[in-house]
Amino acid sequence: MIATAWRVVGVGFSLLVVLTAAVLYGVEPQQTAFTHGARVGGDVFISFDLRTDDLTVLMLAVVGVVSACVQVYSIGYVRERIASYTALVTLFTAAMVTVVVADNLFLLLIGWEVMGACSYLLIGHYWERRDARSGAMKAFLMTRLGDVGFLFGIFVLGLGYGTFKISELGDSPISSGTLTTGTLLLLVGVVGKSAQVPLQTWLPDAMPGPSPVSALIHAATMVAAGVFLIARLYDVFTAAATTLTVLAIVACVTMIFAALCAMAAVDVKRVLAWSTVSQLAIMFAALSLGTSDGRHAALFHLTTHAAFKGLLFLCAGVLLHEVGSAAFVVLRRYTRHGALRTAMPVTFVTMTIGLASLAGVPGFAGFFSKDAVVEAAWLHARDGSTLGWVVLVSVCLTAALTAFYCVRLWLWVFFRTPALAGALGAFEDDDPMADAEEPDTSKLHDPSWVMLAPLVLLAVGSIGLGYADGVHLNWGVALVTTVLALLGALPAYSLWQRGADPRPVVLEQEFGVDQAYYRVFAVPVRWFAQLAVTGDRDVIGAYVRAAGRTGTLASQGLRRLQTGNAQTYLTAAVVGVVALAILAGVIGS
């Protein structure tokens, strides 16, 4: 009964967010100020202000719909610690809403940090699993590292402009050095929260958390907060050309790096996690152009990405729910006869729609939003911008790589055939049950409609959102992106047909970044920790122990002198007096 009440509260709050977005749609942009606050010196006053505009409405709709789908889906998915899970997901949603409606940098920071704390607790929901505990700790530490820069950036910009109110930033003059420093520090926090290079490794390791949590983090909250922040402060960032250049470099490196890692991952959720990192980088690349077209394209892609990525993670959750693992090496045993495709038709169709949208197949939402980014980059490059050309080439290359890993995942999960069962390629050594008998697939089926309804809704969004902005299609760009998708899909199909799979060591180990971080950061920290322990134990502790031991020995010696024999005391006194007399005589002579 208590669990049901918590679920009702969670679903109700998410629907309330959607209703709020609907009510605010079309309302004139306005700011609401609360008089309670604190003065930090001079005219700088911290208050808790709220803001309503088109961006607020858009993000509230995205957050509310995805959160509602996740909450409903969780009714059929989550079985352990339901009350705490629902409370944390609801708080997570509320924190993102706070970030969206905030018109003050410190109010935004509160929501920003609460999201980080909730993500730590939700990723570690299955705390009895070691990988869940380590993934949660890694996410917490890496995002907190970025948030240190974020906090300092808030102070630099707020004190530089003389206000912490977001809508008033840029109204007063500020030196270019202060502006660049403040925006770069904010960018550090954005890089950490949105898992961009070099703080990208926490997101794929956050996959041990429940799949609905993965959908919420990857689709509508937390990682999307970085994109939202730059879009909210776009006028400030566009005034800092150096910061936009750094953002473009980080985004271009990240999108290609993450796409290459996704090409070799053998777990469905890990493929999708790297895909999220790559797609977020595409949004950041669009924002780095510094144009209104780039901002519009980034927000368009953010909206469509929320639909198809939320859908894909919920579909991955169905696979985990029914099969017990989302790793290719296990799924392959269920797909030699196309069992998953035939036994779970709704899951197959909806996941196909999600992957098609992610890959940029014409007609799906991802196709239109990705084309918008490419077109914005082309328009910027055509004007002679080197940055525009770098972004354009990077996004086009990433589009081909995205099509590759989408087709690869789709074929290996749903289309394993008997003819290919003997050609296991690189998976043979990784599958501990490769020689086991074919499992019983008669019990495989689509889950209840409580879990399927969110899939269907998000699948509709993965198609229909592409037309919500009006059908604006640049046929030249569309032709190029379609050819790129085909160039990425054909090698994946060819490799699957031969039973092979591209898993070079450098890709399988994700370029060894985690190992490098361990050697560069973890090993020295452990060494210094051991040195500190040794110094405390063997140096400082030795002096403390020696002082204590000296006192003990002295007390033991004095105790032995206390024999209770008066003759002994008298003899000692006489001896002492004689010794003092002799000493006085020696000194006097």
TrEMBL record:
Q: Membrane-spanning residues where?
A: 55-75, 82-100, 106-127, 139-162, 213-234, 240-264, 271-290, 310-331, 343-367, 387-407, 449-467, 473-493, 569-588
Can the keyword Thylakoid be found in this entry's annotation?
A: no
Ranges of residues in domain NADH-Ubiquinone oxidoreductase (complex I) chain 5 N-terminal: 42-80
| Residues covered by the NADH:quinone oxidoreductase/Mrp antiporter transmembrane domain | 102-380
**Does the keyword field hold Transmembrane?**
yes
Membrane-protein topology: Multi-pass membrane protein
Keyword terms, alphabetized: Membrane, Transmembrane, Transmembrane helix
Q: Which InterPro entries match?
A: NADHpl_OxRdtase_5_subgr (IPR018393), ND/Mrp_TM (IPR001750), NU5C-like (IPR003945), Proton_antipo_N (IPR001516)
Subcellular location(s) per record? Endomembrane system; Membrane
Pfam families per the record?
A: Proton_antipo_M (PF00361), Proton_antipo_N (PF00662)
> PANTHER family of this UniProt entry?
NADH-UBIQUINONE OXIDOREDUCTASE CHAIN 5 (PTHR42829:SF2)
Q: What is this protein called?
A: NADH-quinone oxidoreductase subunit L
